[in-house]
Amino acid sequence: MSFLDTEREVLEWLLPGLDATLAAHPLARLERPGSPAVAAFREAGGAGVLVPDRHGGLGATPLEAVRLQRAVGARCPSLAVATTMHHFAVAGLVEAGRHGTGFEGMLLEAIVADDLLLASGFAEGRTGQSFLRPGITARRRGANVLLNGSKKPCSLAHSMDVLAASVTTTDEDGTERLALAFVPAQTPGVSVRPYWRSSVLAGAESEEVVLTDVVLDPQLVVLTDVSTGSSAPGPVHLAGFLWFQVLITAGYLGTAGALVERVLRCGGGSAAERAALVTGLDAAMLAVEAVAREMGDTAEWGDPLLVKALTARYAAQDAIARATQGALAALGGTAFLGSDEGTYLASAATGLTFHPPARGRTAEALCAALDGQALRIE
Questions:
Q1: Any keyword Repeat (predicted)?
Q2: pLDDT band at residue 337, thresholds of 50, 70 and 90?
Q3: How many CA atoms does the CB half-sphere of 149 hold within 13 Å?
Q4: CB 3.0 to 4.6 Å from 112: which of 56, 71, 127, 296, for a disulfide?
Q5: pTM of the full predicted structure?
Q6: What is the set of domains in the chain, with CATH numbers?
Q7: Whole-angstrom Cα distance, residue 112 to residue 363?
Q8: Residue 52: which of 109, 92, 115 has the closest Cα?
């Protein structure tokens, strides 16, 4: 068995032909704006990976999903990031269906039937502000709901069919609550502005999506019981957050694995150094898989599982840092001069560090949770 074989077998089983399609393109082609990767993912049926089989989807288990994402990340880092946003938006929709009006099931079936891609407009962490405070507001206007605000960065901005957005609503008594809004991309008032200036992960289509007086049917807005001032996610946000942590971590472990794979191929460094690179990343992936297995085996998800997911994610950040540095050294100066793929993959793999919640803002909350207190995420 070769490195990453298990993950690629899962990818081939769930989305036949996608791995070969991605491998046929140079990395630089996949990672730049206008990448063919998103279209290849759509054509392979990737939109339905996490849609339950009762709605016609593939119904992948959490364990299968993280292995698939690692394989995708090893071929195309930008696609792993972009599709993580789609997958966890779908997961949020599945959870919302437990509390919603019934349209969620119809949308899930449409995702499969029409290969619809969901962009995630859940709040990104902004300096000094909770990730549970969205940048989009929703207010009643007659029989409809009016949305205003923006999400940046928003992956799949150019390819999305639906924006799944976390929004702030205001009750009659003035209480602000979180809700989920599902906005068709062609709705009047939806626009995309340039935002991503880096060449790293440029294929993820991460731009600013702006909503200006967007009129939406109330059925497309699912209310939650979580107030905007809360630091404790409700069931829908918790489910999405868990999926996000394990999927995004697996994708970046795949990206770091692509760099290590190049070391193994060329025989760089000593055998002990190559073995250390593999075992470090595989150990981190085993932690992610342990969380994914528990997600699949546990009916009720709560704080303890989220603590484990965050622990696995932060441990993976350390493993990626060690592996990318060691892999570049093992490849040597000739590889550095001959191609920028190694340095690109190392840069792309560090992206895990920048997704919310940042380790520094979470450290105190994790320690408190491990001391028996409720987990609070800022």
A1: no
A2: very low
A3: 24
A4: 56
A5: 0.94
A6: 5-114 (1.10.540), 118-227 (2.40.110.10), 235-370 (1.20.140.10)
A7: 39
A8: 109
